[in-house]
Amino acid sequence: MIETAVTIILLLLLGAVTIGIVRVRGLFAAVVLLGIYSLLMATLFIVLDAVDVAMTEAAVGAGVSTVFFLGALSLTDTVEASAKRPQIMPVVVALVTAGALLWGLSDLPEFGSPNQPIHSQGADYLARSIPETGIANVVSAVLASYRSFDTLGETTVVFTAGIGILALLRRRRGEGKS
Amino acid sequence: MIAAALLAVLVAMALVVVRALRGPTTFDRLLAANSIGNLAIVVLALFGFLTERPEFLDLGLTYALLNYVGIFAVLKFFRHGSLGAEAEADKP
């Protein structure tokens, strides 16, 4: 009961902050508001009992993203270029994406329902993992063995992102000296 | 009791969000962001006690550290105009 109330209040605040992000003109203020959005989102994730996701949201959304945005602002400019005329295409893309997401949402199982696939499938990993993989830790077995290609892909993405950021920073520093 | 405290903290959070959205200067928004970070820690702690999982307090400590890093980066940006190392070198 109280959890529902907290969820609704946080969602309302999130909506208000989103409208604020769209309406605000200064890019620096937008970065600050994005940080606020991430903090509210992390709190909402905690109320929804997804503590690990909340941790990631707070670390990436409110922490590192703010630093990256500020780095981008220091490399470019803090004033937004004003659009010449209203653009219709981004609105269409946003509406179509929102419609597709809402359509997909109708197919999800009910929140907290015991009939979710997560409860009916995969529970036999506990019995299967040691004879099949020989790894004592079940989480490690799922991550590194059953989903090894998924994990390899994730590692590749993170590695590529790191290389890209290093290349950007390195070139900038060289230009400053010469 | 804890539920009432939780609702009170959420009301405070709403007021701070109003300040962040209306704030005439960027520093108002910055201070609001910092306050929301602190209020999020309090919500986290209260919610942990409400659902009888006081180990959420550890997460609150991590939040405090993350909040510190974010605000530190923003203030450094204001002080030097960039986050790079060159600005550090010609500091008075």
UniProtKB/TrEMBL annotation, chain A:
Q: Which residues form a coiled coil?
A: none
- Keyword check for Nucleotidyltransferase, yes or no: no
Chain ranges of the MrpA C-terminal/MbhD domain: 13-76
Principal subcellular localization: membrane
Q: Which residues cross the membrane?
A: 6-22, 27-48, 54-76, 88-105, 151-169
Q: Where is the MrpA C-terminal/MbhE domain?
A: 122-174
Please give one Pfam family short name: MbhD
Record's subcellular location: Cell membrane
Q: Which NCBIfam families match?
A: PRK12504.1
Report the protein name in the record.
Answer: DUF4040 domain-containing protein
Q: Which organism is it from?
A: Kaistia terrae
UniProtKB/TrEMBL annotation, chain B:
User: Which residues, if any, are the signal sequence?
Assistant: none
Superkingdom classification of source: Bacteria
Q: Where in the cell is it found?
A: Cell membrane
Where does the UniProt entry say this protein principally localizes? Answer: membrane
Q: Which Pfam families match?
A: MrpF_PhaF
Q: Which InterPro entries match?
A: MrpF/PhaF-like
Q: Where are the bilayer-spanning segments?
A: 30-49, 56-78
- Topological relation to the membrane, as annotated: Multi-pass membrane protein
Per the record, the similarity remark reads:
Belongs to the CPA3 antiporters (TC 2.A.63) subunit F family.
What name is this protein filed under?
A: Monovalent cation/H+ antiporter complex subunit F
